[in-house]
């Protein structure tokens, strides 16, 4: 195996672990897009590779995979699949609201998640 190939594989392995860390850090009630996860995980990956990285995660990590959606604010799984239903149900249980089949990324996406990570969860309305 060439040195450059080994370096690329090691870099991808590091990037995969970064993806796991980013996904593990998505706060309850928020979502990130595949592209945002890829960007936050650092150079060397793309939105298309995020799902590959998540599939490689050991089960014991229990990643909140359901909090990763596509750039249009939609669940990427086929609408008639059990995986789609499970992902939607998990998100709704966490308080994420859908408008039809879309999630408002301004409310539940990266900015809201970043605010929560920095400042903590918003107070409960009285």
Give your account of this protein's structure.
By secondary structure, the chain is mainly α. It is built from 6 helices and 4 strands. It has helices at residues 3-24, 34-41, 47-55, 82-93, 105-108, 110-119, and strands at 32-33, 68-69, 98-99, 102-103. The strands form 2 sheets. The chain has a two-stranded parallel ribbon with strand order 1-2. Strands 3-4 form a two-stranded antiparallel ribbon. Strand 3 and strand 4 form a beta hairpin. Helix 1 (3-24) crosses helix 2 (34-41). The longest helix is centred in the N-terminal third of the chain and has 22 residues, at 3-24. It is globular and about 35 Å long. The N and C termini lie far apart (62 Å).
Considering the chains and any ligands shown, give keywords for the structure:
126 residues, two-stranded parallel sheet, two-stranded antiparallel sheet, 6 helices, globular, disordered N terminus
Nearest-angstrom radius of gyration? 16 Å
Total beta strand runs: 4
> Main sheet: which strands, in order across?
1-2
* Protein structure class: mainly alpha
Shape: globular
Give the terminus-to-terminus CA distance.
Answer: 62 Å
**Arithmetic mean pLDDT:** 86
Give the SSE order as H and E letters: HEHHEHEEHH
Which bin fits the share of residues in helices? 40-55%
Strand fraction:
5-15%
User: Helix count, per DSSP?
Assistant: 6
Largest sheet: 2 strands, parallel
Low-pLDDT stretches are 3-9
Overview in brief:
The chain has 126 residues and is mostly helical. It is built from six helices and four strands, in the order αβααβαββαα.
């Amino acid at each position: 195996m060439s040195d450059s190939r080994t370096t690329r594989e090691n870099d991808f392995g590091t990037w995969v672990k970064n993806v796991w860390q980013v996904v593990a850090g998505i706060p309850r009630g928020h979502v990130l897009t595949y592209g945002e996860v890829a960007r936050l995980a650092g150079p060397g990956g793309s939105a298309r590779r995020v799902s590959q990285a998540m599939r490689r995660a050991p089960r014991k990590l229990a990643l909140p995979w359901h909090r990763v959606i596509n750039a249009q604010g939609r669940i990427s799984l086929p609408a008639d699949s059990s995986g789609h239903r499970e992902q939607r149900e998990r998100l709704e249980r966490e308080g994420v609201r859908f408008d039809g089949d879309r999630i408002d990324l301004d409310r539940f996406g990266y900015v809201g998640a970043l605010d929560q990570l920095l400042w903590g969860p918003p107070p409960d309305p009285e």
